Amino acid sequence: FQRLFLLRVMRQDRIGAALSQFVIDNLGQDFVEQPPFDMESSLEESTAITPFFFVLFPGVDPTPTIEALGRKLGKTEANGQLLNISMGQGQEKIALNALNKMAKEGGWIMLQNIHLMQAWLKDLERALEVIEEFVHDDFRCFLTSEPPGVMQGKLWDLIPEPILQRCIKVADEAPSDLKSNLRRAYSKFSQENIDACLKPREFKATLFALCFFHSLISGRIKFGAQGWSKKYPFNDGDLTICGQVLKNYLNNAENLGTEVPWPDLRYIFGEIMYGGHITDPWDRRVNNTYLAVLVTPELLVGGALAPGFKSPDAAKLEYSHYVKYIEERFPPEVPQMFGLHPNAEIGFLTNQGISIFKTIADITGGGGGGGSADISASTPLITSYLTALPTNLDMIDIRGRLKEEDYTPFIIVSLQEADRVNALLDQIRSSLLELELGISGALNVTEKMEMLSADLQSNKVNALWAEKAYPSLKALSAWFADLVLRHEQVVEWTAQLKLLKSIWISGLFNSMSFLTSNMQVAARSNSLPLDYMTNRCRFYNTRDLAEITGVPPQGVNVHGLFLEGAGWEDGKGEDEGYITESKMKDLHPTMPVCNIFAVHIDEMDWTAMYHCPVFSTSLRGATFIFVANVRMDPDDNEYRWVLAGAAMLTQAD
């Protein structure tokens, strides 16, 4: 246990694994591995006066599980023995009357989303006490509620404690580890599902791959934006419906003129069932790539599902054998099983370690600070930032030096950047001076001043500053230093009033506008339609700006790009470099200077190129800028880099 203290201090990214091993050594494997939730055995533990309380997590809906068990025990909506009420305005009396009715008759009742009815929950608490006097032994009550949000505190702040105390609490959250996810996914099917298919060999092999696919996309979220840019509610219903679709297609395969309609299955699974949740096009590409490598004819001949994990021989195995195969043959989980590099888990594991100890502090009441902060403590910081704050650019002087013909797309972008820099500097300067006056007593201290003071003392970018700024995940000190560098670039650009030999693309407020202007210049000079232009990248073999002698003959030079999810191998001589495997612990290698020039889309050649998305920050998603063509080894497959989450960033956080 003492060794855990050292690990906590020295390698926070490894504390999760160490704690798991500590629990296994002292309590056993059962306390680490999560078995699939069994509603039937849970029901046996309950009584008529102990309701079930389901905590709702993204992608988890207990309704199908309860309905399936109800059908088995003769409790269905058709015969009036199961009632499902979604709580909302106007449902209060209906729910209480139904609760009393079902309690007398021995039926089942589900009250969904009770967290929406907090004022009514006292009535529910009283009703659950009253029915104890006349309740039928077969009566069961099922309550569901979302967990409280970040600002709502703990669950007992949302739901009255007496209700929670009388309930059996069920938190059937999808597990984070791959083996538990696969075990859970496969448990949604049975031998009866296999027997119902006319092509059992094909069904078993594809169903197992489908369950593995479900496990991968459910587990990938833990890798942050490199896994998925958003949290998608993939759920058990998606999986079971896909299983049904698979059975129907195989049973009708002869009518479709094929043994197994692989492309049809991949399209329905990827674009409709699971893809229906996905809103980001780059996440959709990852989803479809998983299906492209998993749902293939190779499944029928023992093809690999992941490194060290093959699809078993479907002709020889039944349902129970697959369950045993998962338990005995599943390899230790590593990021490579998701298609990711080991570097991908460093950030995830560090955040996991931070989260574990934050949760411990919250539960034990430790780590809390009392009292309000002293705003006068921010005085030295105000002085420091005001001293270092650059002066505004003189836009009257800059525009006065321009003739009408000088307003080229690049110059217009430089003026837009200068205006944005000035607006941000004005916001910072005015708010700091205002806070300074508030501390001195010249102004009344407002809530905005208090928030700014707190942000300064906690090294956090103020929300009002962020509104005028650019996407960034940096702490305030690094963010401010970054702002000074951005100001210096705009000063140099507007002083010369011509394109610089290389633009620091990370230092632009609107990188997309700059790249659009690059296409405008090319379209005008070649008399081509702008709508049919696209940017093409060519990376030099240098990162030293001193080696760049001047403006390129075609397009623009940019620097300040970083690669995530992959590494970069510089070329030799005139040969361009190419994307390659990451080096251990090198999370964001710096890319060489890049020449970006615009071409007509018909001239764009993607041979041996990876469609690499470029984002402003590692949060990805809405910070997307453009798609860069990144050279690959000719023997490489683009699928490899899609699953690795390879992308370029303009800020390495």
UniProtKB/TrEMBL annotation:
Q: What region holds the Dynein heavy chain C-terminal domain?
A: 351-650
Fetch the Gene3D superfamilies from UniProt. Answer: 1.20.1270.280, 3.10.490.20, P-loop containing nucleotide triphosphate hydrolases, Region D6 of dynein motor
InterPro entries noted in UniProt: AAA_lid_11, AAA_lid_11_sf, DHC, Dynein_C, Dynein_C_barrel, Dynein_heavy_D6_P-loop, P-loop_NTPase
Domain called Dynein heavy chain AAA lid: residue spans: 203-344
In what residue span(s) does the Dynein heavy chain region D6 P-loop domain sit? 48-170
**Name listed for the protein in its UniProt record:** Dynein heavy chain
